[in-house]
Amino acid sequence: MNTTASNIIETDILIIGAGPVGLFAVFEAGLLKMRCHLVDILPQPGGQLTEIYPKKPIYDIPGYPSVLAGDLVQNLLKQIEPFGPGFTLGERAETLEKQEDGRWLVTTHRGTKHLAPVIFIAGGLGSFEPRKPPIDNIAQFEDRGVEYFVRNPDFYQNKKVVIAGGGDSALDWTIYLADVASDLTLIHRRTEFRGALDSVEKVQHLAQSGKIRLITNAQVTGLQGNGQLSGITVLHDTEGEYQLPADHFVPLFGLTPKLGPIGDWGLKVDKGNAIEVDTFDYATNVPGIYAIGDINTYPGKLKLILCGFHEATLACQSAFKYVFPDKKLSFKYTTVTGIEGLPQ
Predict the structure, then answer these.
(1) Sequence-ordered list of residues with C-beta below 8 angstroms from that of 200, at least 6 positions apart, any chain
(2) 94 CB contacts (<8 Å, ≥6 apart)?
(3) Minimal CB count within 10 Å: which of 144, 163, 177, 328?
(4) What is the 3 state secondary structure string of 16-73?
(5) Residues 6 or more apart from 240 whose CB is under 8 A from it?
(6) Coil, strand, or helix at residue 154?
């Protein structure tokens, strides 16, 4: 049955996920005079940038030698302000139903209904949980010295901090916190790192200069403290077991992605829970549904915000033709035409 109740939110493009890629999609859709509404389980826009590392610098956004994640979100929100997008925040997109008129009805877990001919899934990693190291008593120190994300670097000012991990996040935060913590240690299970070569070289230089302690071929196996973390146990492949004092232990082993209810929407999903798309326009196997950003996969995929912006741009062009098949789409440079409501 076609749903036409007045309490339903209707829009041209319904965007599932209000992270940076979802926000930029609003801008590209706005240039085509298409209305957007965003749904996100988080209580505020920005996705991981806002929720996990708002103070983390990002270095690969064009035109910004460095920009804090939180500042990038604020800039994106300011950029889309003239287009007046709607937001349903703190709610998870739950069910999907095709209507008689061809539009999609998406209902959240709180019962809010949204109706749109096109859906963009821009859910980042989907619902995610940190990968926790197998330490028996780690739960009792969570928020008492154990943190799985660095939300505010100033929190670690003049503290003894131990970071564990070998990927970009562990390397980046080691570099950043080297000038914040009074004592900083990075522990990794191997000698090879998975992060960017430049970051690896910076960490090694910090270790050689005595700014940080770098321990490889080792792992944290125990935590000590009376209600609050005071130390960790390190198990080294050759040196055996020993303890280090620590006010904070930050294991950065990545996130476990989960599609959640979206996984039941009939989309083609690979073994890693990523949605397969056509690189022509980032459409899924279901007509009218696109996937952009970290949640999609295709040959050569790179999980970069920059790539997500590109995907959003092409998806919007395709969505216009899908929603308005009889209208002619004339692409023009914004530097030539200007944007209504924006400074010229």
Answers:
(1) 171, 193
(2) 106, 107, 108, 109, 261
(3) 328
(4) ECCCHHHHHHHHHHHHCCCCEEEEECCCCCCCHHHHCCCCCEECCECCECCEEHHHHH
(5) none
(6) helix
Q: Pick from 157, 167, 245, 163: which is nearest to 212 by CA?
A: 163
* Rg over CA atoms, the chain: 23
pLDDT category of residue 113 using cuts at 50, 70 and 90: very high
Q: Domains of the chain (ranges plus CATH)? A: 9-128+255-337 (3.50.50.60), 132-251 (3.50.50.60)
Q: What gap in Å lies between CA 321 and CA 283, rounded to an integer?
A: 13
CA dist 229 and 79 (Å) reads 43
Structure tokens at 53: 């590392």
Phi, psi of 244 (to 5 degrees): -130, 140
DSSP assigned state of 329: P
Residue type, 53: Y
pTM, full prediction: 0.70
User: What is the b/e burial string over 149-184, where b = at least 16 CB atoms within 10 angstroms of the residue's CB?
Assistant: bbeebeebeebbbbbbbbbbbbbbbbbbbbebbeeb
pLDDT digits (tens, 9 = 90+) for 254-286: 776 667 789 899 999 998 889 999 999 999 999
Place of tokens 């900083």: 184
* CA quadruple 279, 282, 284, 287: dihedral sign: negative
Give the tens place of pLDDT for each residue, 198-208: 999 999 999 99
Q: Which two tokens stand for residue 216?
A: 């490889």
* Cβ-contact 277, 307 below 8 angstroms: no
For residue 134, what are its two tokens? 């197998």
Contact 3/102 with Cβ under 8 angstroms? no
